[in-house]
Amino acid sequence: MGAGGKGDRSERHAGRESPPPQDMSRTVKEWTPEECLNLTSPADSYLCPLSANTFGIEFLEFRIREMEGAQRELYNVKKPDDAPSEPIVDIPPELEDQYRLIQYNFPSEFLKAKTIGTSLVFSVGNNEVPSFRMIERHYFKDRLLKSFDFTLGFCMPNSRNTWEVIYTLPELDPDLESEMIDSPFETRSDSYYFVGNKMVMHNKAEYAYSD
């Protein structure tokens, strides 16, 4: 469920100053969807540079909500309507978490949910996106909990799009649930975004659950 920015910084993510550019001319491995689906633990680093986003995809708003009971909204971050688009530049590795990692704090009953819904509003640059795919891998420590694979269809150039996704969550045994509550931010996810077989974005998330 990662969509950019870290922790409290996510609220000011859209209005921040642009990061200093970084020379990324060195060869970077290009990861395929199949390779990402075979990963068995969280990625140690970001598997593509920010400059891989050659389609100018920009996340504008992200919401998480319950799909059962009161259907509460659990999270909402939105880029101000008058905020300018930011240039896509590579940054030093030590700064990447500030722009590509988000931390969530959810109530512990979230772990008992069977389904949740997310809504991502994003814009596309001057080139069409023939197919936008997200692979999301969720882990507790180094244990894979669940893998999700969603594909959105064609996106027109210079368009604004909304991507609604429903997650079916895994049933957790009580001991694992307790351990996840007692281990804040040891639950992690990697979100890999592809256009065709080209990875264009990679974001991370960490989760804490409290009573």
UniProtKB/TrEMBL annotation:
GO biological process, one term: cilium assembly
Keyword Transport (UniProt): yes
Pfam families (alphabetical): GMP_PDE_delta (PF05351)
Residues annotated as domain GMP phosphodiesterase delta subunit: 52-209
GO molecular function, one term: lipid binding
GO annotation, cellular component aspect: cilium
Renumbered residue ranges of the record's region Disordered: 1-29
Keywords: Lipid-binding, Protein transport, Transport
Amino acid composition bias (Basic and acidic residues), ranges on this chain: 1-16
Family: Belongs to the PDE6D/unc-119 family.
Name of the protein in question: GMP phosphodiesterase delta subunit domain-containing protein
Native source organism of the sequence: Hemiselmis tepida
Biological classification of the source: Eukaryota, Cryptophyceae, Cryptomonadales, Hemiselmidaceae, Hemiselmis
